[in-house]
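In response to a reviewer's request, we include the raw inputs and outputs for one of the modeled complexes. The two entities were modeled together in a single run.
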Amino acid sequence: MELSLLLAPLVGALVTGLTWRWIGEAAALWTGAVFAVLAALLSGLLLFFYDGTPDIVLIARFIETGSLSTDWAVLVDGLSLSFALLATGLGAGVHLYLVLGTGDVNYRDGETHRARSSAYLSLLVFAALLFFFASDVAQLLAGWGGIGAAIYLLIGLYHRKPAATAAAIKSALIDRIGDGMVLLAAAVLFVATDSLSFDVVFSSGASLGAQSPFGGSLADMAGIFLMVAAFTKAGQILFHGWLIDGTSAPATALALAVPISIGAGLYLVLRMGPVAEMSSLAPPLGATIGVASVIFGAAASLGQAEIKRSLAYGAMSGAGALLAVVSLAPTPSAGPLLGVLLGLGLLFLVASGVIRATGGAQKLWHYGGLRNVVPVLFWGSALAVLAYLAGLSLLVASIGAGSGLAFLVYLAPLLAGIALGRVVLFTFFGCPRTEADAKGSSKAEARGPGLAVLPVLGLGAGAVLPLIWAIGGAGVTALLLFISALAGLGLAWWAIGPNIERAKSLTASMGGLGLWAREGFRIDRTLESGATGASSGLATAFWDRGEQRVEGTGLGAAATALLPTLGRMEAGAKSGFRLTFLVALGLSAAVFLVWALAIGGGQ
Amino acid sequence: MDNLLSVLIFMPAVAALIMWVFLEGDDRAARQNARWLGLIATGVTLFAALFLYVGFDPAGTGPQFVEERSRSSRVTFYRVGVDGISIGPILLTALMMPVIVAAAWTEEHRTKHLMIALLLAETFLLGAFAAQDLALFYVFFEASIVPVLLLVGIWGGEGGRLAATRLFVSVLVGAVLLLPGLIILARLAGTTELASLPGAELASPLTLAGADIPGGAATLLWVALFLAFAIRMALWPFHMWLPRAVAGLPPAAMALVLALTLKLGAYGVARLLLPVFPEATALFAPFVLLLGGIGIAVAGFVALRQETLAGLFAYASVAHMGLVVTALFSASRQGIDGGLLALFAHGLAIGGAVLAAGAVANRVNGRRLDAFGGLLVRMPAFALVFGIFVLGLLAMPGSAGFVGLLLGLIGIFEASLPVAALVLLGLLPLTAALLLAFRQIVLGDLIKESLKSISDLDRRERAALTALVALLVLFGIAPSILLDLTGPAVEAMLGGTG
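The model returned the following structure tokens for the whole complex.
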């Protein structure tokens, strides 16, 4: 069953991606959806029948060289099964949304991307399963890189849209940094423990505690590398460019890509938790960057005009809180974690429905009053927000109040409430915007994708109720945090309310601050211009002032000078005599060389 | 089969000889005969290589399928065999050549001579990889550049003659260093048999300007051989001949140079420098590691500025050779295994990328990157395979390069953390360069008139490129197919050297 679960999305991806031109888009979409639902069912069954005893199902040998031995395998334990259920469940939901609805608004009329989108989504689920089920660092790395590659494809789905293809490259580059960090961590772990197997690595505390050549322990080195890798996938500050620019992709793609990517970053920290626990530097680093991302992401989200960018910054903020939680309390319960990620995915799906319902409008100012036009989207967003806030409150409550950082993390539910509340209020309350009508949307058109969200909403409802129930039993802290999150929603209501004009005047009164927030406090642009400027400068230095300049010197110059002489020799050789002479000379030289060397061997 | 290896080595040369002697004229029939003969010869060679693979004993550390021809009891002039170090390059050559010949199918300019050059190149490469004698290795090593010189000079386009001259001067410098180096090595070791060289006593004190040179003559020998191999593998900064040499080549010839010929230099490092000169290798390893690391970064940044397909692929290869040599000089089991696998993976990926892009370039007669754009719409099959090869060059999981990078990096890390970090940093600009090129060629709007009626890959191209994709993925998910064969030899090399 484990192997079937692992391979189902891969088969779906291959069949959909390779055959859709022949079998047609609808058949391809259904194929992808069937395999996605199959994977979700298998995943659910495995989790349901899991008896609490971890097991490793070997599939095949992977790398075997010297003392290094790794396998393709399925590690079955509570953590891997929970995350597998997230990936397959959300994957199935997004596939059903694609196949039942009309999908995203096309970048250009007449273009269809749904079949390729379905194939890439299945590929992402497969890579995620490979990652979550890894029993050693080699497979972990393979899945990690696979997730990055699938996200590159999804972000670049609108292949004619320059912003999308540029964002895809940015995503690949940031992902490459993460790959490098996991590679370095793998190298540290192997050098320290002579193995990449989790069992061996986690039981080699003494080896990992050894001093590294750069100060600190080897566990510190590995822990820091892993933490930085997690930052890249979780879109944390300094590494968040892919998440923000990635909003050029259709919202359906983001509905799976964002939760899985953030989930992968968190899973890496959780799975490699024993290594991080041995490190005194990695957890504080994770918590610090996480807290910085909480505040930065939430503040920037408030300044965004577009729904997807607003959600992306919100996701960055939420991921920061989760990262801080898993850094400070490395054994959080999986339920709330999955609730937050599921809520995030649902919010992007709702965004897809909203964009479709408004004829492609992306800006929050163009929305309003959609609660009555497409109520299913409104209730979907409500469930998603509740799941998100309840899960976040539960998780944040689990870290305790041991440090100043923990106190700052406590702000996360409140900030999330404000940021998400702002999006929901702008979208579903107030008066219907005339711009939407001008774009040709109608109730009937809007209901198409709205209805398609229904199966997905079932997932959200399934997550919300236990989470809210759990808050009741989790103690006063969780309850207060959840109340603070609801207060955030209330604050957003107070500031924006159903009155879009008041919201607009509030935004206007923020003036430069609002614009500053919209641009991500210039951090995004500074990072981008710094990276492109540095690489462009180095490329110019090495090419224009390096290769190009020295090309005409040394051997190059000698060759250029020799060319006329060789030309004359060639002309002479064609006369016959010289050719015979040259061939004879060459053969003699070869015979002499062979003789000279062979005699050496004989002696 | 006693002569399997000789059949493998000389089958292409025999076919080339038949072509030269019996195929006359340059009409359509003659061209077609030359193509088919080339394909059959490389196909038979591949078949022989598969026999070799099946019969190869993975546990053996010494040469297998050994064949010797002696003129007298004292002089052995022909000794070939296969061991764990050479099996990879031999398989790669045998696997790539039918695809390369198939890619040359549409070449109309002196087709017969092109096929002869390709077939001779295969024989010389296989001979160099299989040689178990220094003299034979030298002869095949230097001979292998002759077909390349012809390819560059005749089929290299406008700048072909100058490029050939530059290549000639470069290899001449390498040959001038290699030949005396090998002769002195043979004299010091008292044997030309490659299998007997590791462990041979090479200590010969040497004084230069009154100062003793550490390691004596062996140190100078190491330097001479390293420079010769570095030039041949286009290791930065000895790579200047490569971009111009491949600039005007037809895709098949470019694939031969980038996917196979470069490998000979790296093979020389693994065959001679590492096992025969352990002390000198240890002495120079930090320098080579740094050179390789810097080379990856510099080549990656330079690749960003390339405006042609050839420039891009050439500098991507220079960067990869940096990775290979850095991994090899890590002198660890994982590093050397990773280096050999990366060598193999690069051959498949760069070969596939060159042939796929070349198929499109031939259709529009354009070689600049800006001659393309938006091909995904008209050429989805090309977009798919080209994308896979680009990801393969970036060592994405699922490709053989991924395992090579992982193992290589473990080895490099053991040798030097800063170099490992430099290698990973250097891969960033290369990633950007390749993905930007992919975007330029495949993505975006299809604007250019010349591309609006372009046809997708035909059946022959699809078959050839799909085979390479399958191999790239196969060795990515089951790298033990190769690692099992190389492992014992690498282990013996490390054990023998210390």
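As requested, we also summarize the result in words. The beta strands of chain A are 55-65, 68-76. Chain A touches chain B through 76 residues (CB under 8 Å).
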